[in-house]
Design a protein that fits this description.
By secondary structure, the protein is of the alpha+beta class. Among the domains are: 62 residues, no CATH class; 106 residues, Immunoglobulin-like (Sandwich); 89 residues, no CATH class. Helix content is 26%, strand content 32%. The strands form four sheets. It has an eight-stranded antiparallel sheet, covered by helices on one side. A five-stranded mixed sheet has the order 5-13-7-10-9. Strands 3-2-1-4 form a four-stranded antiparallel sheet, with helices on one face. A hairpin with a 6-residue loop joins strand 11 and strand 12. It is elongated and about 180 Å long. The N terminus is likely disordered.
Length: 376
């Protein structure tokens, strides 16, 4: 049975056709869309092989593919319109590109400025994290804490300068020296005539609690407490005196002795005295008070004039018919009954009541007159 086909269909890379119930295929070099064309079909496979049908079919398929790959000509007038549209589209694209580029540039500039500001703020926050007001407040708090830590507890001690008489007799209470941590107290030793009495040696009970300095030849000890609320004692051996001078040391007191003139009974190596009343008497407690500027108990204050500028240093009291005069000048008339001197040159005299006292100016051979009023 013979069948005849008037068309052949090309697929992708393969040309297929069918006759007498047999499927034949021819390969094509390149893919192509579907195409139709007419060929005289053979009646059998043997005729297709002998007549060169397959070769003709492949050649016509190749020609069809070449035609389809050629560009189709554009209609008349279409090229100009397309060119204009293409140019306008290019301009629009270029404008959009330029706008996008400018916008990106602006964003880049703004971004760099923001980054610089953020970097500066970050460095400032790290190096100086506090405001000036906070820094000032912090320094104020620091100063207040330092002040509170350095300030001793309680009320600041009151400094005083005094003279004390040393009693070497048995069962006598030793003088008390009031000290403070961070304060230096000078102990000045002198004899009954008010002259310096050199120190030979000393020994302290608690060396860790008190610090003592001495030049190993003078009559002055510098002593300082190392801490608060400590107590100990001090033994001082005077040059030429067999009995040591015993002192009690107390720290952390409300009153601190800045300087203490310790009057040791007896005459030291540097003793001096006048021939008015012979040898000096033992320490007089009333004269000691006068020497310290303390009015004798029950005495009457007197007014002192004259002295050419020294009158401010002179004070006088009347007690039981006796005149007590405190001055830095040397009395030459009338003759005094008792005298007591301190290391700084101040004298306390016991005299007969008189309205005029002749004194000698310190360091000069000049006589001055002190007028005393208020006896009545």
């Amino acid at each position: 049975m013979n069948k005849s086909f008037g068309s052949i269909t090309f697929g992708v890379g393969v040309v297929s056709f069918c006759f007498s119930g047999v499927l034949l295929a021819a390969a094509v070099a390149a893919p192509a869309p579907e195409a139709s064309f007419s060929l005289p079909l053979p009646t059998s496979i043997a005729e297709a092989s002998s007549s060169g049908f397959l070769q003709q079919l492949a050649a016509q398929a190749q020609q069809q593919l070449v035609k389809q790959q050629k560009p189709q000509p554009a209609p008349a007038g279409a090229s100009g319109v397309s060119a204009e549209k293409s140019a306008e589209k290019s301009k629009e694209t270029s404008a959009v590109s330029n706008g996008v580029a400018a916008s990106n540039a602006d964003k880049q500039n703004v971004s760099i400025g923001d980054m610089n500001h953020e970097a500066f703020s970050g460095v400032t926050s790290q190096v100086l994290p506090m405001t000036p007001e906070q820094v000032m407040r912090l320094r104020q708090i620091f100063n207040e804490s330092q002040k509170a830590a350095a300030m001793p507890p309680g009320i600041p001690p009151r400094p005083v300068t005094s003279s004390l008489s040393v009693n070497l007799s048995p069962q006598a209470s030793p003088p008390v020296i009031r000290l403070g941590a961070g304060y230096i107290t000078s102990l000045v030793f002198m004899d009954s005539t008010g002259q310096p009495w050199p120190i030979q040696a000393y020994s302290i009970g608690d060396p860790a609690a008190f610090n003592i300095q001495w030049d190993k030849k003078g009559n002055t000890l510098l002593i300082q407490a190392s801490s608060f609320f400590k107590r100990s004692n001090l033994a001082v051996i005077m040059n030429g005196l067999d009995t040591p001078v015993m002192l009690t040391l107390l720290s952390g007191q409300e009153v601190i002795d800045y300087r203490v003139d310790l009057r040791v009974p007896g005459m030291g190596p540097n003793a001096t005295f006048t021939t008015q009343n012979g040898l000096p008497d033992s320490a007089n407690p009333i004269l000691l008070d006068v020497l310290n500027g303390i009015p004798p108990k029950g005495s009457k204050p007197l007014r002192v004039f004259g002295g050419e500028g020294y009158v401010g240093e002179c004070k006088a009291w009347l007690l039981d018919g006796r005149l007590f005069l405190r001055t830095s000048l040397d009395v030459i008339s009338p003759a005094w009954k008792s005298v007591m001197s301190s290391a700084d040159g101040t004298h306390a005299y016991e005299l007969q009541p008189t309205p005029v006292v002749l004194v000698l100016q310190r360091g000069k051979d000049k006589t001055l007159a002190l007028n005393i009023e208020g006896f009545e």
